[in-house]
Design goal:
Blueprint lengths: L20 H8 L3 E5 L2 E4 L1 H20 L3 E2 L5 E3 H7 L1 H4 L5 E4 L5 E4 L4 H9 L10 E10 L14 E11 L2 H21 L4 E5 L10 E7 L5 E6 H5 L13 H8 L3 E3 L5 H5 L5 E16 L3 H4 L2 E3 L5 E3 L1 E8 H11 L1 E2 L2 E2 L10 E5 L5 H14 L4 E4 L5 H11 L3 E5 L1 H5 L3 E5 L5 E4 L1 H9 L1
The structure holds one RNA strand.
RNA sequence: CGGGGCGUAGCUCAGCCUGGUAGAGCGCUAGCUUUGGGAGCUAGAUGCCGGAGGUUCGAAUCCUCUCGCCCCGACCA
């Protein structure tokens, strides 16, 4: 993409409403604009990142055996009355009345909808298990939205739902999602650790939240050092028994502040790490909480109806955009992990109008392709270009100017480390294409 | 939902206390000079001073109401 044509209204100064670093950088880097409290417009650069993250989530869900679908944002209140949540949910639910005076709502989650789809479609235990998911906008009318995109009222979430014959088999579905989450966050360049979470009225130990470590995170977490060093599971056979793998990850001490056991933690000694984090995922098994009141049953092996056991698994897709920035930035701006970067490389033409420089840039641009490179072909001063490029944080910068070209080199800069190297355009190209 | 703060140019903000012709820096437009880390000079354009009501000869400024946004606390992907 040529920057001269791209919609990238970066800001030199920080808008007053932004307090935390990710929010500030997202506004300055022209990723989002605030529309109302907790509601954002995604500009091209921010949208590109959102799509990258969404795609990683999708790939890992599919790999784990979940199937993508799409449920509506506007839902009927009737279903929510069936589950009993229409009244329970309170003011966080945005309620709408349509022209026929029917009660509708903007979905804050989709247990009711998916349970309804399931019960009208699945009759036999032979059709189990199933994991279905969608990536859809949600609305929760938070009392106090804040932290930009990390705690908005409108947010993009991946929510998956599992259906099993009983709790024992449901555990396998749970484990599949557990492992999928480990992989999902790792692929985004994040250190995410699973913490045992409150399970509510259902009880049991089947709820975990996934916390991304970032100094500016909302919650304090305590965990065993070894958790931070554990390698991401590769080549997972999702049909195999995943329990040993899950046990490996849950066997080590890890707790958020509210679940923190000081005595137990102290016994870890030097292995105890206390850090801050941002919740980016939450999985739980809730049994028949919705299937029972809504009558989601299948015919079991013995011919009797069985109320299915369910679980739900959420990833805050839009929140991740902010969380990644919180975890990866410096004074100059964002530092995108390669996997989620909106472009792989930023090409800086230091002297637009200079024949040799223009030609060298054009050939690099053509070779790398418009999807991988953002080419700053604007007639701006070098300093402005450097500042903008650092701000938007593409992993690589290739800086091309007449001085370097006279020596037969371009400058290649690694955004994360700041390392610069003078190499020929050909070798830069080779490196970036690899 | 309790407590606090702020709405003035695209952005950051001054002016308000003590009422009297709407301001600065950055950005934008044009020209000249510049050009390897957010240039300099010159000339411009830009505002229902968040909205409504009131007090006053006169309101950005004082009063009342209202809308919006932010921050701190209790709750959440």
């Amino acid at each position: 993409m040529r920057l001269s044509r791209y919609f990238l209204p970066t800001l030199k100064e920080t808008p007053a409403e932004a307090q935390i670093v990710s929010h500030r950088l997202m506004l300055r880097a022209a990723m989002v604009r605030q529309h109302a409290a907790g509601i954002y417009t995604w500009l091209p650069l921010g949208f590109a990142v959102l799509k990258k993250i969404e795609q990683i989530v999708r790939e890992e869900q599919n790999r784990a055996g979940a199937q993508e679908m799409l449920m509506p944002t506007i839902q009927s209140a009737e279903l929510w009355r069936e589950s009993g949540r229409y009244d329970d949910y309170g003011k966080e639910m945005l309620r709408i009345t349509d022209r026929h005076e029917r009660d509708m709502l903007y979905g804050p989650t989709a247990e009711e909808v998916i349970t309804d789809v399931f019960r009208t479609s699945i009759r036999s235990y032979k059709d189990l298990p199933k994991i279905l998911y969608h990536i859809q906008w949600k609305f929760r009318d938070e009392v106090r939205p804040r932290f930009g995109v990390m705690r908005g009222r409108e947010f993009l979430m991946k929510d998956a739902y599992s259906f099993d014959l009983d709790t024992a088999t449901a555990r396998h579905s749970y484990n599949q999602m557990f492992v999928a989450y480990l992989r999902t966050f790792a692929r985004m360049g994040l250190k995410a650790i699973p913490l045992r979470a409150e399970t509510g009225p259902i009880g049991g130990d089947l709820s975990h939240e996934f916390i991304v470590l970032a100094d500016t995170g909302e919650s304090e977490v305590h965990c065993h050092r070894a958790l931070l060093e554990k390698p991401t599971p590769e080549g997972v056979d999702y049909d195999a028994d995943l329990q040993p793998l899950v046990d490996e990850w849950t066997g080590l001490y890890a707790a958020a502040d509210e679940m923190h056991d000081v005595t137990k933690a102290a016994s870890l000694g030097d292995d105890l790490v206390t850090a801050r984090g941002i919740e980016v995922g939450h999985i739980f098994h809730f049994g028949t909480k919705y299937s029972a009141p809504m009558g989601a049953t299948v015919t079991g092996p013995d011919g009797d109806p069985v109320t299915v056991a369910m679980g739900s698994y959420g990833v805050g897709v839009s929140r991740l955009v902010g969380a990644i920035i919180e975890a990866s930035h410096d004074d100059a701006g964002i530092i995108w992990p390669e996997a989620v970067a909106p472009f792989h490389v930023g090409l800086i033409n230091l002297k637009v109008g200079d024949e040799g420089t223009d030609a060298a840039c054009a050939s690099l641009y053509d070779a790398l392709g418009p999807d991988r490179v953002l080419y700053d072909d604007r007639d701006e001063r070098a300093g402005a270009k450097f500042a903008d490029m650092d701000l938007i944080g593409l992993p690589w910068q290739v800086i091309v100017g007449p001085k370097g070209l006279a020596k037969g080199v371009v400058e290649m800069k690694n955004r994360a480390t700041g390392e610069r190297e003078e190499i020929s355009a050909e070798s830069a190209l080779a490196r970036l294409s690899g």
